[in-house]
Specification:
proton-transporting ATP synthase activity, rotational mechanism, ATP_synth_b/b'su_bac/chlpt, about 180 residues, 4 helices, mainly alpha, disordered N terminus, ion transport, ATP synthase subunit b, chloroplastic
C-alpha cells in the first residue's frame, strides 16, 4: 500500500512544487483508473443486474414448475398405462389359448408408446430449461456490456477536454508517421 501512496506523493514525478503536472508512471495510474471504473460499474450496475437476474430466476422457476407438472402428468399416464397393462395381463390369462401372441404385442406397444411419451416430455423439459438459461445469460451479458460501455463513454466524455483530445490525436498521428517511415 505504501508504494501506491508513494506514487501520488512522490515529488520525482512533479515538475516543481506549486505547479500542475501529470503522473506519467503507467504502472501506478492504470490500477487506480481500473479500480475507479470497476467501482463505478459495480455501484451503478448491481441494482439493474440483480433485478434482471431475479426476473430471469422467476421465469426459469416457472418453466421448471411447468415442466414438473408435465412430468407429473406423464407419471399419471404411466400409472394408468401400467393399470391397463395389468388389465391386459388378466385378460391374457383368460384368453391365453386363443390369442396369446396378439395380447403380448399390444402390451409391448402400450409400454413402448408410454416410454416414448415420457422421453419426449423429459427432453422437452430439459431443452426448455437449457434454452431459458442461455437466453438469460445472453441478456445479462448484453446488459452488462451496454452499461459498461455507457459508463466508459460517460467517463471518457467527462474527462476528455478539447486540448487533451487534440494532443492525443497529434501524438497518434506522430506514431503512425513513425510506423510508416519504419515500414518504408
Amino acid at each position: 500500500m505504501k508504494n501506491v501512496t508513494d506514487s501520488f506523493v512522490s515529488f520525482g514525478h512533479w515538475p516543481s512544487a506549486g505547479s500542475f503536472g501529470f503522473n506519467t508512471d503507467i504502472l501506478a495510474t492504470n490500477p487506480i483508473n481500473l479500480s475507479v471504473v470497476l467501482g463505478v460499474l459495480i455501484f451503478f450496475g448491481k441494482g439493474v443486474l440483480s433485478d434482471l437476474l431475479d426476473n430471469r430466476k422467476r421465469r426459469i422457476l416457472n418453466t421448471i414448475r411447468n415442466s414438473e407438472e408435465l412430468r407429473e402428468g406423464a407419471i399419471e399416464q404411466l400409472e394408468k398405462a401400467r393399470a391397463r397393462v395389468r388389465k391386459v395381463e388378466m385378460e391374457a390369462d383368460r384368453f391365453r389359448v386363443n390369442g396369446y401372441s396378439e395380447i403380448e404385442r399390444e402390451k409391448l406397444n402400450l409400454i413402448t408408446s408410454t416410454y416414448k411419451t415420457l422421453e419426449q416430455l423429459e427432453n422437452y423439459k430439459n431443452e426448455t430449461i437449457h434454452f431459458e438459461q442461455q437466453r438469460a445469460i445472453n441478456q445479462v451479458r448484453q446488459r452488462v456490456f451496454q452499461q459498461a460501455l455507457q459508463g466508459a463513454l460517460g467517463t471518457l466524455n467527462s474527462c476528455l477536454t478539447n486540448e487533451l483530445h487534440l494532443r492525443t490525436i497529434s501524438a497518434n498521428i506522430g506514431i503512425f508517421g513513425a510506423m510508416k517511415e519504419i515500414t518504408d
